[in-house]
Every structure is written in structure tokens, then in C-alpha cells.
Design a protein that fits this description.
alpha/beta; seven-stranded mixed beta sheet; four-stranded antiparallel beta sheet; 9 helices; 32% helix; 25% strand; globular
Length: 291
């Protein structure tokens, strides 16, 4: 991680209030992850041991190659440790099969990605419904859950809109609603503000803080931005596959207090933001991927 990480208002880590005696949402015990690239073995994680308790809001920081993305893949049950054990809500998931891990992901974990990962030809409501389809939820219940999730992120009036009709911030709100629709115990967000402007980034952090503070959702985000990490309650820093720092955030930033001090996008700026999220048109009128 860059030296900018030292700008975090932090203090040495102590157990979260009320956490003692609780079963951790996340517990890693000596976790290693190795990848074989031909004759070269890459050590992505080197003996990581950590605990995250229910209701915590944790930022994971580190430079490229530090191991933070590998950590998130393991926490999200998208990958398994080479050695060591991972307990999710007290259950050892280290040795589960792919099918068993998929079931765990569906029931317990919500994902938010930097690129939104919305289906372009389906409405916001239908995008949010997708996890409930995989979980086998009946149609009527799917719609009810999706509508409620969109309401929680302030997009109840955009349910019928397609991604191309939404700004970047609105698309990320849809992605958060999708992550919430199966009522997970853990929300994992990988650079959730990476593609957003400053004000929209704070709006997204406000949603995450409210979900954590008002609904008790355990939130873990990956970010390379110290300013964004300052919205969390605790920060973990990784370097060369090892956790080198674990601190509580002091003088934490509160998004709801910062937003009123920021300029509001006018209508023209909002339209420009929507346009910036769309692919460019090619010579024949077809869309081409953004560079």
C-alpha cells in the first residue's frame, strides 16, 4: 500500500464493543493461498489469521499484488485456501465442495463490484431479482424482496429503468440492492466507489454506513483510497500476502454529515454522468466497448 495509508485516523485494534463472546462472522486461521503459474508458485496469502465480528464495518487496503483481492475471493467463498481454515458464522467452509460453496454464497453473502455487473437488457427490478431466482424463491416473493431492496437504496421509482437509463451511482445502488435481496449476513464490496465521482462515492458510503449502523449488516470493503477507508470502523492493511496492520478508525467520517457540504449535480451534469457509463457508438451505429 502507498504511504497515503498513514493518513488514516487510526488507533491500535481492540475487540469491538459487545463482540467478546460472540461467534465471529469471519474467522481465518493461518490461511495460505498459492497459485501455480507454470514452474513458478505465487504465494498470494501467507498465513493470514483474523476475526471480523457481526456488525463490524471493515476496510481492506493494500497495493496491487498485496493479496487483498485473493482474500476477498476466499471470504466470498469464490475460492478455497491452500492451507489453513476459514470459518463463516462459525462453520468451517474451507473444505466444502463447489456446490456447497455456491449454496453458502446464495444464503449468506452479498457481493458489490466496481463494474456494477448489471445485465443491460433487464430492468433494475429484474437485475435485483436474479439472486432469488438462483435460490429458488417463488415469483411473488422474488418481486416483493426486489422491490423492498430497491426501496432501501432509494430507487423504488427506478424499478422499471434499464441500466442505460441510470447514472453510475444509480447503477451501483441497484447492485447493492441485488446484494441485499437474499438478506445476507455479510456484504463484500470490491472497490464500490472506484468508478464514481466524489459526491456519488459519498452517497454510496452513506448507504453502506446505514446498512451497517441501522440494520447491523457486517460490511467488508476493498479500497485503495484512504478517504474511503475512513468511513469504515476498522482498517486492515495487506502487503506481500500478509496482514501488516489492523487498526480501529478514530474520528470516523460520517457520510450523512459530509453530503450536505458537497455541491449537487445539476440536470446537465447528471445527463453527462449517465452518458459516461454507456458504450461508445461504432461507425456502423453499433455500440463498442469503452476503452
Amino acid at each position: 500500500m502507498s504511504d497515503s495509508s498513514t493518513k488514516l485516523n487510526a488507533a491500535p485494534q481492540t475487540p469491538a464493543a459487545g463482540a467478546m463472546g460472540n461467534v465471529p462472522t469471519i474467522r481465518l486461521d493461518g490461511v495460505h493461498k498459492n497459485y501455480d503459474l507454470g514452474e513458478i508458485q505465487v504465494h498470494a496469502l501467507r498465513g493470514v489469521t483474523m476475526e471480523i465480528y457481526p456488525g463490524e464495518f471493515v476496510a481492506v487496503m493494500g497495493s496491487s499484488g498485496s493479496g487483498k483481492s485473493t482474500l476477498m475471493n476466499i471470504l466470498g467463498c469464490l475460492d478455497k485456501p491452500t492451507r489453513g481454515r476459514y470459518f463463516l458464522d462459525g462453520k468451517d467452509v474451507s473444505g466444502l465442495t463447489k456446490h456447497e460453496l455456491a449454496k453458502i454464497r446464495s444464503q449468506k453473502i452479498g457481493f458489490v463490484f466496481q463494474q456494477f455487473n448489471l445485465l443491460s437488457r433487464t430492468s433494475a427490478l429484474e437485475n435485483v431479482e436474479l439472486p432469488t431466482i438462483y435460490a429458488g424463491v417463488p415469483l411473488e416473493e422474488r418481486e416483493r424482496r426486489a422491490e423492498e431492496a430497491l426501496k432501501r437504496v432509494g430507487l423504488a421509482d427506478r424499478a422499471d429503468h434499464f441500466p442505460s437509463q441510470l447514472s453510475g451511482g444509480q447503477q451501483q445502488r441497484v447492485a447493492i440492492a441485488r446484494a441485499l435481496v437474499n438478506s445476507p449476513s455479510l456484504l463484500l464490496a470490491d472497490e464500490p466507489t472506484g468508478n464514481l465521482d466524489s459526491r456519488t462515492s459519498i452517497e454510496i458510503m452513506q448507504i453502506l454506513q446505514e446498512l451497517n449502523q441501522e440494520h447491523g449488516l457486517t460490511v467488508v470493503i476493498v479500497t485503495h483510497e484512504p478517504d474511503i477507508a475512513q468511513f469504515a470502523k476498522r482498517a486492515l492493511e495487506f502487503r506481500d500476502g500478509k496482514m501488516i496492520k489492523d487498526v480501529l478508525i478514530q474520528r470516523r467520517s460520517i457520510a450523512a454529515e459530509i453530503l450536505p457540504t458537497l455541491p449537487v449535480l445539476d440536470e446537465e451534469d447528471a445527463l453527462d454522468e449517465i452518458a459516461s457509463t454507456q458504450p461508445e457508438a461504432g461507425p456502423n451505429g453499433n455500440s463498442t466497448p469503452q476503452k
